[in-house]
Amino acid sequence: MVRAGPQKQISSHHEPLPAAFQTTPEGRAQAEAYHAAQQHADPPTADSMAAKLALTDLLPLPKSAVKIPRLGFGVYLSPGAVCVASCLHALKHGYRHIDTAQYYQNETEVGTALRQSGLRREDVFLTTKILAAAGSPEKTYQRCVDSVAKIDPGDGGFVDLFLIHSPSGGKSKRQEMWGALERLLAEGKARSIGVSNFGVGHIEEMKEYAQVWPPHVNQIELHPWCQQRTICEYCTQHGIVIEAYSPLVRAQKAHDPTLVPIAQKHGKTTAQVLIRYCLQKGWVPLPKSDTPSRIEENAAVYDFELSAEDMRELDALDMGADGAIVQAVTNS
Question: What is the residue-wise DSSP string for 280-323?
Answer without folding.
Answer: HHT-EE--B-S-HHHHHHHH--SS----HHHHHHHHTT--GGGG
